[in-house]
Design brief:
Blueprint lengths: L22 H16 L4 H28 L1
Helix pairs in contact: 1-2
């Protein structure tokens, strides 16, 4: 357990707000949120930021695939 009673998430243990997210987004969001917790960010903000950044990551990744195919 981390200081302040916050535990990072791992292997199927993730924030409840991630429950209905696609598996790849949930995994990436959990990875990002854990890193933010390690940096000292508050849990609620880390959860929201992790989800937002994970969505952006896959949106950008999808956009890059389309660019590569059209060139």
């Amino acid at each position: 357990m981390r200081k302040g009673g916050i535990m990072p998430w791992y292997n199927g243990d993730y924030p409840p707000s991630y429950k209905n997210q696609p598996l790849k987004i949930r995994g990436k969001a959990t990875e990002i949120a854990n890193a933010l917790l390690e940096e000292g960010m508050e849990e609620g903000i880390a959860i929201a930021t992790g989800l937002k950044r994970a969505r952006e990551h896959f949106k950008n990744e999808k956009g890059n695939d389309k660019k590569g195919k059209s060139e």
